[in-house]
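### Sample
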Amino acid sequence: MEQGWRSVVKVRQQHVSQLRTVFHLEQISVMTNLAIVDRVERIIYDVDQGFSFCFNITSCAWHFARLIGEIVPVKSAWAMIIPRTERYLFSVEIVPICCGDLIFLPPNVVASLGPNIVICTRVAKTFTLLDPFTLTHCFLDAHQYWKAPFTHSFNRTQLVEYVVLDIVLLQDNQQDNQDEEEEVVEENKEKKDAAAAAAAKKYRLADAVVARVKDTGNNDTTFQIRTHLGRILKPGDHALGYDLSGGVGEGGADTNTNNNLPAAILISKISYAEVNGRVVAVKDKWESDYQLFFNDLQQDPQLLFKITAPYRNPNNHYTYDGPFVDPPIRPFDPLEDLLDG
């Protein structure tokens, strides 16, 4: 640490290869607390799968660390004095789940949530998991997650491009019957109802025939799958998905899950511009991850609205004129207080 820095906020997100969380966090934090973010002296990236914010004013670092806990699920936020210095170190660990991750839930989590194969569709103060075969949702906050932690089975670096050859929507009564059979225990009924309404508008179950784009001209292999993107995809579209046709190997899923895996699980549609204007895979990690973040905003208007809403609120455009005092040397408030604050 250089001499001018009094405090560092170390933010870590283990087992995550994308930096989209960083970009999301950056946008939200800038728009919700301009005064604190303006005090950042330097940002160090890509240190142990995370990044560090350096401050000259310790209380700014303290408030910034608390702000992160209000934006995304975190495990811990605490302060300590670095030995033989008068500098503070704040540590924040973000839940290692990103939007678009495919997760095979462990049996102990399945027992409480219901589905065993889910897709993460949103990461906010809580993160949302979607069962792509029933359209049911589960919600977890950081406190619930760290009681029985898990990580993704596939992430967006493993996505494969498919072309949709045919797609047939499930009949409404067929989908309704399947939804009625699935009972998921959730604590927050309002969230469940809101998610069900959102899923009904955005997703619809369909049976599709797809082929890997890389197989074009090499073989005629096709896959018959069920997808939640029935409202979005049509024949001729290109989509990104996870290739499960060869299984997931040891440790990727339990035996029962492995025996019932579909050949592929589609995650998102690829826009026409991306298909026809593709140059080559972007080599620069930051540019590639920023493009993923930008694509997330394009495909999820609600995420874009959430990020820009604080900026549209004039009450958030302020300058902090109060005193900046050093925080007490003690652990932060309990995690529940951070999440409910």
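The chain has two domains: 7-95+305-340, 102-299. This sample (Nonsense-mediated mRNA decay protein) is used throughout the tutorial notebook.
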